[in-house]
């Protein structure tokens, strides 16, 4: 009889552990960058970042600030001071649909080993390639937003 009791106890413990909410799939790690139009930074929009198994998923929309409708004119980078920590530009350029200074809702995943925790409190920057003179183009910063932890709602 004690052997049967031991087996029953082990089964109950196993069921309790596998049904425990503590062992449930953790919530994905998320962050947000909220771009506010200001003097010399015309970009206005919100980007959401989320860790995935492949890297970092970026989704968002820009309501204004994009004067060129050519996606390759833009860079989307995470900066730590002046150093580029993560470059989303190529993936952004593939999906960006720009019309009348707006970028329609988009989503992409950038393959990286970077974690959201590494990017929090860094700046997400939008740069545009602009003509300053005949044949001379420079990158100009047109938007900057701090990456912050997304509040759980």
Quick overview:
By secondary structure, this protein is of the alpha+beta class. The chain contains 3 helices and 9 strands; from the N terminus they run H-E-E-E-E-E-H-E-E-H-E-E.
Quickly give the structural class. alpha+beta
Shape: elongated
Mean pLDDT equals: 86
**Count of individual beta strands:** 9
Major sheet details? 9 strands, antiparallel
Radius of gyration over C-alpha positions, nearest whole angstrom: 22 Å
For the record, give the distance between the C-alpha atoms at the N and C termini, rounded to a whole number.
51 Å
Query: Which percent range describes the beta-strand content?
Result: over 45%
Total number of helical segments? 3
The parts where pLDDT drops under 50 for at least 5 residues are none
What does this structure look like?
- The protein is an alpha+beta fold.
- It has a nine-stranded antiparallel beta sheet with strand order 5-4-8-9-1-2-3-7-6.
- The model has no long low-confidence stretch (mean pLDDT 86).
- The protein has helices spanning 2-18, 89-95, 116-119, and strands spanning 30-35, 44-51, 55-64, 74-80, 83-87, 98-99, 102-111, 123-133, 136-149.
- The chain has three helices and nine strands.
- The radius of gyration is 22 Å and the shape is elongated.
């Amino acid at each position: 009889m004690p052997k049967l009791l031991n087996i029953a106890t082990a089964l109950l413990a196993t069921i309790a552990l596998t049904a425990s909410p503590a062992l449930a799939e953790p919530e994905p790690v998320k962050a947000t960058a909220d771009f506010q139009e200001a003097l010399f930074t015309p970009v206005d929009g919100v980007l959401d970042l989320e860790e995935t198994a492949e890297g970092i998923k970026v989704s968002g929309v820009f309501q204004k600030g994009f004067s060129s409708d050519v996606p390759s004119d833009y860079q989307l980078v995470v900066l730590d001071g002046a150093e580029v920590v993560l470059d989303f530009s190529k993936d952004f350029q593939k999906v960006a649909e720009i019309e009348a200074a707006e970028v329609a809702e988009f989503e992409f995943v950038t393959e990286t080993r970077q974690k959201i925790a590494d990017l929090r409190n860094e700046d997400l920057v939008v740069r545009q390639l602009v003509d300053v003179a005949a044949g001379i183009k420079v990158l100009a910063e047109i938007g900057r937003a701090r990456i912050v932890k997304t509040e759980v709602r």
